[in-house]
Amino acid sequence: MVFFYNQFMENIAIVLKSPSKKISYRKLGVGDRKIAFFHGFPGSSGQIHIFEDFADQFNIEVICVDRPGYNQSEQNSTPQSDQHNEDLNYIIKNLGWTQFELMTVSGGTPFLFSYLKNHKKKNINNVCICLLYTSPS
């Protein structure tokens, strides 16, 4: 596992080496509620900052995986949504999550739908889709 600072973001991205490629993601909080957040377009895992003020209050642990080609996540010839599904599963397994929630904003929505379509038997507790986002500040 490698940690690096993105030149535009203050929080740290984590880079995992899967059997076939590198995957970068960010993690925030240490709560009991586990949330996989799908970043928008043209965003990146840096969008996880929207949870900073709420992680402790709502007892959440959030991850946001960089889609293939974003930050340090590598691409291959597999369709991007399939790669993202595999990457997310790899990270969830690494973290030991057995139940989790899904949340998306804007351009992450097609990736969330792809994940739901291909992972019906997963232990997904809730799904939240936000089509518009404005910063609370």
Describe the structure.
With 137 residues, the chain is of the alpha/beta class. 19% of the residues lie in helices and 31% in strands. It contains two helices and seven strands. The chain has a seven-stranded mixed sheet with strand order 1-2-3-5-4-6-7. A hairpin with a 4-residue loop joins β2 (12-17) and β3. The termini are far apart.
Profile the largest sheet: 7 strands, mixed
Strand order of the largest sheet: 1-2-3-5-4-6-7
Whole-angstrom Rg: 14 Å
Number of separate helices: 2
Q: SSE order in H/E notation?
A: EEEEEHEHE
Note the gap between the termini. Answer: 33 Å
Low-confidence region ranges:
1-9
Average pLDDT for all residues: 84
Shape: globular
Q: How much beta, percentage-wise?
A: 25-35%
Estimate the helix proportion, in percent.
Answer: 10-25%
Number of strands: 7
The secondary-structure class comes to alpha/beta
Q: What is the compact description of this entry?
A:
The chain is 19% helix and 31% strand. It has 137 residues and is α/β, with parallel strands linked by helices. Strand 6, helix 2 and strand 7 (124-130) form a beta-alpha-beta unit.
Strands, helices and their partners?
Layout lengths: L1 E4 L6 E6 L4 E7 L4 E6 L21 E6 L14 H16 L4 E6 L3 H10 L5 E7 L7
Parallel strand pairs: 4-5, 4-6, 6-7
Antiparallel strand pairs: 1-2, 2-3, 3-5
Helix pairs in contact: 1-2
